[in-house]
Structures are given as structure tokens and as C-alpha cells.
Design brief:
With 294 residues, the chain is α/β, with parallel strands linked by helices. The chain has twelve helices and seven strands. It is elongated. The termini are far apart. The relative contact order is 0.08.
Length: 294
């Protein structure tokens, strides 16, 4: 099928390439004209035959809002917009309502697979009307591995499922991180080989996973992770998952704690920890370390 791809970053460019390898006709647009096939969204829309299908892979928030608003003014009834980014599912529901009033179809496609998706395929969690899903399904079959895509339900359902997927990912990453830190910090067994342990756990262990496979690669390249700073961003879905858990009265302590742990990673010298150290000194005479002490 013919597809317009908006956003040719790490994900968008690889998805466009996988689609081309599957014999789809892809025209890409990016603000970076060096990687773009067309000069503008107007040019992209003009080059596509009606009814058009345009897949958006830009950051959530204002970039997605601006892109959808611009496309809404350019597209015609019967055209289709797919948001494959990490938009908040409530925004996706609103986008669907706005576009539907114009006669434009909409899908939200939660996309997982990262930089490995080009070779391995992408897991696609798709929300939207049945008509919209069926229109884009040929592309989904190409982008996903076998059994790697599903229609989750109405608009917003795809991004809702992807949000929870990423909340689970937060907890898994935190568990691996804490476990390997305990191993690394052992005074009883100071010579444990973390790469060897990670490789061992890949075979028959109940904690084996693709993330563990990636841990093996990371530790093989840098056994003590000396080149990596312990600063971890959060892309938004972890926060949204915690907020939804609060809204629905669902206990989700692991997800919440893993989110807050990421915030702690950004503090080189936490004031909260300073306060705790100072209070321990005041009430118990416990020693405190100077700023320059190791």
C-alpha cells in the first residue's frame, strides 16, 4: 500500500525502511530536509493518492498536536491518520473525535521494538474504528513479526495498552538494576562476574527475558558500566500509568517506586538525603560525610 511517514528519526526511519522492504510505497517527511523525501506536509499530502494513509512518528505532546492539526487542515474525508508515537491515550481519544468530525479515519498504534524493530519487527497495539484498522492492516502485517499486532479496541485503546506496557517495563528494569547492584556490591563475594551471571540466567532461568539478553550485551562491552552515567529519563508513560492506577484505585507500588527511582537518579547530591543524614546526626550523633569524602 501507499503510506506517508511523518517523522524519520530512529524509529520512523527504520519503520519506513521495513515497509519498503515489504513492497509498500513509502514517502517520508521530516523537518530535517536531508532525510526527507518531500519539502513539507503539503507536499507529502499532494504526492499521496486518495484515500491517503499517513503514519506519524514524532514525539508526544506539542509535536504530535501540531502535526495532527496541520494534517487535519490538509486531508480529505476518507483519509487515514495513524499516530504511532507515545501519545497519552486521552489525547488520542480527542484526536479521534476531532478527525472523525472531519470524516478522517484515525488509529492510535502503540509501538514497541525500539532500534531492533527493523530486523525483528514491531509489537503494535492498535486502537481505532474497525474500518480504520482494516485499512492500515497490510502495513501492520509488514511491520510486525508473526502474531505481533492486534486491534485493541476503540480509539485510545492502543495507546492505553502501550502505556501500561511501559509501566511494566519500568518495574522490570528497576528489578534488574537493583539485583545487579546487590551482586556488584557484595562484600562476601567481591569477585562475582556480572556478565557471566547475566549469561547464565539467560538459559533456563525464570528471570530470562529480552532485557536480560540486552544486559549481557551491555556488560560484555563494559563489564563495570564505567562509561554509563546513572541518570535515567522517563518518557511519560510511567507517570501516566501511575496516575491511571490512582484514578482506578489500583495498587501499583512497584510501578510507582520504579518511577520515583528514576527521579532520584537525576540528583547528584540529593537534598532529601542531606536532610536525613543531618537529622540522624542530630538525634543519634551519627557521623556525616563531607561533600569531598568518597
Amino acid at each position: 500500500m501507499q503510506i506517508g511517514m511523518v517523522g524519520l528519526g530512529r524509529m520512523g526511519a527504520n519503520m519506513a525502511e521495513r515497509l519498503r522492504r515489504g513492497d509498500h510505497e513509502v514517502t517520508g517527511y521530516d523537518r530535517d530536509h536531508e532525510v526527507s523525501d518531500v519539502s513539507s506536509l503539503e507536499d507529502l499530502v499532494a504526492k499521496l493518492q486518495a484515500p491517503r494513509a499517513i503514519w506519524i512518528m514524532v514525539p508526544a505532546g506539542d509535536p504530535t498536536e501540531q502535526t495532527i492539526a496541520a494534517l487535519a487542515a490538509l486531508l480529505e474525508p476518507g483519509d487515514l491518520v495513524v499516530d504511532g508515537g507515545n501519545s497519552n491515550f486521552r489525547d488520542s481519544m480527542r484526536h479521534a473525535d476531532d478527525l472523525t468530525r472531519r470524516g478522517i479515519l484515525y488509529c492510535d498504534a502503540g509501538t514497541s521494538g525500539g532500534v531492533w524493530g527493523l530486523a525483528e519487527g514491531y509489537c503494535l497495539m492498535v486502537g481505532g474504528a474497525e474500518e480504520a484498522f482494516e485499512r492500515i492492516e497490510p502495513a501492520l502485517k509488514t511491520l510486525a513479526p508473526e502474531n505481533g499486532y492486534t486491534h485493541m479496541g476503540p480509539a485510545g485503546a492502543g495507546h492505553f495498552v502501550k502505556m501500561v506496557h511501559n509501566g511494566i517495563e519500568y518495574g522490570m528494569l528497576q528489578a534488574y538494576g537493583e539485583g545487579f547492584e546487590i551482586l556488584k556490591g557484595s562484600t562476601l563475594f567481591p569477585d562475582l562476574d556480572l556478565h557471566q551471571i547475566a549469561e547464565l540466567w539467560r538459559h533456563g532461568s525464570v528471570v530470562r527475558s529480552w532485557l536480560l539478553d540486552l544486559a549481557v550485551q551491555a556488560l560484555a562491552a563494559d563489564p563495570k558500566l564505567d562509561a554509563v552515567r546513572g541518570y535515567v529519563e522517563d518518557s511519560g508513560e510511567g507517570r501516566w500509568t501511575v496516575l491511571e492506577a490512582i484514578e482506578e484505585d489500583v495498587p501499583a507500588p512497584m510501578t510507582a517506586l520504579s518511577l520515583f527511582a528514576r527521579f532520584a537518579s537525576r540528583q547528584d547530591d540529593s537534598f532529601a538525603m542531606k536532610m536525613i543524614a543531618a537529622l540522624r546526626q542530630q538525634f543519634g550523633g551519627h557521623s556525616v560525610r563531607d561533600r569531598d569524602e568518597p
